[in-house]
Amino acid sequence: MPILIDTAELAGLAAEGALYGVFVCLFFVCGYDLVDRRIRLKSQLSWPMVLAGTLLILLATARFIVDCTNIFVAFIRHDPREARLAYLLDVTEPLFTTKHSIFISTLLVGDSFVNYRCWIVWGRNIWVVLPSITLSLISTGSGGYLMWAYTHLPNQTIPSEAHWLTVLFSLSLVANALATSLLAYRIWSIDRQLMDAVDRDIAGQSRLSPIVRIVLESGVMNAAYLLVFVMTLEFGSQALEIISEMAVPLTGIIFSIVILRVGHQRHGDSFYATQRPVGTLSEWSVKRRTVPPRTSAIGEIPTIVPLEVFVHHSHEGTVKTRDGGVLENWESADSIAHVAV
Length: 341
Hints:
The protein has helices at about 5-40, 45-75, 80-90, 95-120, 125-150, 160-195, 200-205, 210-235, 240-265; strands at about 295, 300, 305-310, 315-320, 325-330, 335-340. The chain is mainly alpha-helical.
């Protein structure tokens, strides 16, 4: 027996309530962590990130209120069950269009933040993120048309506009996957260049690989629930309402987890946007001069002196370590390198 719309709405509201509670907790944890790191590390807040987080919590709160109101109206004012089912299936109801407009707005905010991070990481190169931005805008436009059609065109139902729903979710899925892939590739390529610039035995384990995994995990989670949307829509199941109600707080949870995990890494997004005037990072030359070795019972042990170099803006020069080692022929633009000499 297929699931009916009233059952789907109740189940979706229960799942949404649990996810909304988790999102609220993560939101405040994120806020505390950002303020704490700003005080301790004297770092600057990313205002686009703060704006995205604030919009997501406001949208999740609005969606939860609208869904609760919709359920109360359906179960209190519409009896028997046939009347309740007719009300919940009526796409012209203001509460129906309101809650789905909130969902479309949430998709736009989530996609926009991923596109923004990709734009920053790629050195503010708009051509790199233009395809994903275009797909996101077309997806949002199809959702806007869908809400307009529901309220202005006669005899509208969810199945009658299923092709526009497919466009909405499919394009958002492709845009999210494309931006996430570009973001992960940029971080991975910078990681490879840094590792190639320094002796791997000295550089040790990569600090950027965990970030690549975090970015890919978040992209997979976003892609997974959008794929479930498309498949559920193709099957014509009323479970679409369950997923729709879960999606808004789930987007916020994914956002918060990524911010928390990436925030404890060493570098911000702007680190990967390094643009050097000439050459590439792999052309860095790190030379080690002879340093008087230490002597122990088993013989001479070479001295390895860790050196952390912070380089800002484009320049060239020579850096000497406290033991006389020399790091020379370096040049960079807003970069940070970890080497041992």
